[in-house]
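Researcher: Here's the sequence for the chain we discussed earlier.
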Amino acid sequence: MHGTDELAPPTEMITEKLINAEREQRRQVANEDLDRLLVPNPPPYVIGSGDLLSIVVWDHPELANGSVASAIAPTSATVDPGNATNAAVGFVVDHAGQIQFPLIGMVAVDGLTEERARALLTTKLAKYLTSPNVTLRVLAYRSKRVYVDGEVKQPGLQAINDIPMTLMEALNRAGGLLPTADQSRIALERGKARYRINLRDLVQKGINPGSVMLAHGDVVRVHSRDESKIFVSGEVITPKALTMHDGRLTLNEALGETGGISPLSGDVRQIYVVRKTAERTRVFQLDARIASSLAMAEGFELQPKDIVYVAATPLANWNRSISLLIPGALTSAVTATNRQ
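Model: Thanks. This is the structure I predict for it:
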């Protein structure tokens, strides 16, 4: 079937029922996505492959095995770089999630918190030492990362550490949002899943954006406001592309920002909104003669890339057709009539 033979999409009249159905659909989609991301009480950091651990067994400096400077100064900040004996600092978790520790050999610490890893080492060392006192902490967090891109000041990789990596934490580490950022269109990619986050909508719903928890491998992209354009054309005073206000722009606002419907040529019965989705193209129509049309236009929320089109009246179309068929004839007729 040729493209010209395809049936045009049906026209859906904009009514209160349609507006309520669209609003409910948006609410359900938003809540479905959020439920998978919200973590009110973040769990503590768990050790992973690549992390660098500081492990000190007090009163047993021989167990450091050159991995830490001393029991008194176990951090990398206290190590003298010029001292070759202290060049290696900490225990690196290998690809199998294990560390090699004196006396007890290989110990699996992958997936353990600092507290659980310390308890495990204490239990194993108790077979060789009397009441071992172990201190364990992560010196360098290198096993988990997220990537922040888009309209932020410092895009790039962010390492997950002992501070929970929430969405707001990641954005703050990236220097914050640029003035061109669209706070309503923050995309979060996790594996094959993709989520859209609207910060302002979260606040309005009473949801703390700080409870949106990121995971290792997540990609956060902050879209630009320029990507959320609405195109208004046809019989309006000033046809142009409009930028949405943090993800929200109603049909009434779009018409108002373009100067309104042309009183000379605009047909108030034929105000159309064309919306293309991955599945289909939808065409909505508003008849502004209806008493409640103003309220419906204010309640009908547009989406990025929507096209608003106001059709011309039959008389305006007839005048234009005559002008094309007989250039200058209509103008001459009007001028002659005015002279009489």
